[in-house]
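User: Structure with zinc ion, tokens only please.
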Amino acid sequence: MENKIKSLIKKLRRFGFSVKPKNKGLLDPVCGMEAANDIAFNYRGQTYFFCSDHCRGQFEKAPDRYSGQ
Ligand SMILES: [Zn+2]
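Assistant:
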């Protein structure tokens, strides 16, 4: 059973799938979900992280609404 899972993970990796590393405890300011650590946006010297490009786009449109600054 365990070997099956391992080989499945290997297959997925070969096809370019990977589990996105998450920013532990870092929350997307737009939707409040856990943010991914590769979707970032700098605003007024601070870096904000988002769960998706969609949320980053929302932030870019109205950063003051979400940044709390
Ligand atoms: Zn989000």
